[in-house]
Amino acid sequence: MSTAADERNARAPWALTAPALMLFVGVLLIPLAMTVMLSFHDWGQYKGIEPVFILKNWHEIATDPYYAEMFWRTFRIAILTTLLTALLGAPEAYILNRMSGRWKSIFLLVILGPLLISVVARTLGWALLFGGNNGLVNKLLMSAGVIRSPIPFMFTETGMVVALAHVMMPFMVLSVWAALQRLDPQIENAAMSLGAGPVTIIRRIIMPQIMPGVLSGAIIVFSLSASAFATPAIIGGRRLKVAATLAYDEFLNTLNWPLGAAVATLLLVALVLIVVGSNALIERRYAEVFR
Amino acid sequence: MSRNGPLALIFHTIFVIVMVAPILVVCLVAFTPEGFLSLPTNGFSLRWFRAIANYPEFIHAFWVSLGLGALSSFVALLFAVPAALALARYRFRGRDALAALFLSPLMIPHVVLGIAFLRFFTSAGLGGSFAALIIAHVIIVFPFALRLTLAAATGMDLSVEMAAVSLGANGWTLFRRVTLPLILPGVISGWALAFIQSFDDLTMTVFLAAPGTETLPVRMFLYIQDNIDPLVTSVSACVIAITMTALILLDRFYGLDRVLAGKGDTGR
């Protein structure tokens, strides 16, 4: 039996979410659909965009090895960046969490603060440190006689991974740190009182509990790195293109919008599949943690 | 609580140095007296800071970024607060799908959003306008505004609201006098985080900005594409100084861990 109050209760969530829902349909889903459609349109140097339905762009991406190489490079860089942030960021978050209140908040500010600072400025810093013969670290090491020629950094994948890991690190630290907040320090003490050594405590007590934090941090870092634009554009330049910089060039330099739209659509679909897939795996594996 | 061992502290020191070095070097190079990129070994000079005055584009871009961030984060909250209340309190069919849709801008690469908005706003005749930038930024900051508001609304004690209802409060009064004050920490930190995301965005904005609506990251990026000289380091140094000040103030008065981790009222 449904009363008037029940009916109002059923309508209330929809009334509250309606403005946001309309906003998202109107200015997110429709533009995305338009982009997918755009990828099937034709384009010519002189005729511009022609609104017909052809598979030319998709055929070009599927058959030209240039695109396969570019996508493989994009995901390789993203995977390496994710590993680097997890290997360094998780221990750092743990160390940070064990500090006393005052130091904890100072270093939290130092490590998370860069999130606020423009990615352009942060990447510029790496270019200043390692940029060819003029790079400050290179100059220092060369004058000290440690190395003969500058460490290759600019226009290399290593450079992109290092700079990207620096940009993404706060997300990983934050994610692990949030997981650590849910952890009861008494469990650690209990393990210690039962005779567990520090290695055992980290492996058996800490790791299983912060793993969801590491994994959700990894998903964030991976998807942001695979679609990163500023850092690859500044470090990689025009020589080492990734999906985002290629799409940018097609849109704003070559003006081949349909091809750029196809690259973007493929990047979106690939990322959504990877992220949704790994999210489902993590949630099944750590169901009790998320409950 | 147990202390960190020496190995942990060495790791921590190196970690912090690497995190800070690129930012520090930008600030140091900004003070160079030379005409090229170098550390200020022959004394400090402010010539590159004075040089900013000759590039009003940078100053204009800064105000565009500031206004865009403040406004789009506020508009995003207008949509996000009711949505967060609905998601926190009701279990209804389609709830999970809605939540996924509202958080989807986190998952959609900004380069794809930039392309989609460029195509959309160009067709709508709004290409390169400030209005287009605001709408686009509302979408990208929405998940941050929603998440922190949602965290606060979920942790809220509903019995306070029931007490208010039993005393005769309802509708707008209930929201303004009871609900909003209770979730306000989450709402404010949501605004702050949303502002940061908007202020820092380059990837999406670079597709949408036109001369006149270029944001600071876009202006800096386009400048670096042409040449890297000490001017861009002094601009960066100014940005870093301003944001660090804001950050320290935010931490003093509110707690950075709360803003970033969205823990609402607990902790500290």
UniProtKB/TrEMBL annotation, chain A:
Domain ABC transmembrane type-1: 71-278
Family in the record: Belongs to the binding-protein-dependent transport system permease family. CysTW subfamily.
Gene source species: Bradyrhizobium betae
A matching Pfam family: BPD_transp_1
Stored InterPro entries: MetI-like (IPR000515), MetI-like_sf (IPR035906)
Transmembrane segments: 12-34, 75-94, 106-129, 160-180, 213-235, 255-282
Main location class: membrane
CDD domains: TM_PBP2 (cd06261)
Location within or outside the cell: Cell membrane
UniProt keyword list: Cell membrane, Membrane, Transmembrane, Transmembrane helix, Transport
Any single biological process term in GO: transmembrane transport
Signal sequence residues: none
Entry membrane topology: Multi-pass membrane protein
GO cellular component, one term: plasma membrane
Protein name: ABC transporter permease
UniProtKB/TrEMBL annotation, chain B:
TM segment ranges: 7-31, 58-85, 97-118, 130-153, 174-196, 231-250
Alphabetized PROSITE patterns for the sequence: ABC_TM1
Compartments where located: Cell inner membrane; Cell membrane
Domain ABC transmembrane type-1 as annotated: residue spans: 62-250
Domain of life: Bacteria
Record membrane topology: Multi-pass membrane protein
Entries under SUPFAM superfamilies matching the protein: MetI-like (SSF161098)
GO terms for cellular component: plasma membrane
Principal location listed in the UniProt entry: membrane
Record bears the keyword DNA repair: no
Keywords: Cell inner membrane, Cell membrane, Membrane, Transmembrane, Transmembrane helix, Transport
Annotated GO biological process: transmembrane transport
Family statement: Belongs to the binding-protein-dependent transport system permease family.
Protein name: ABC transporter permease
Organism: Bradyrhizobium betae
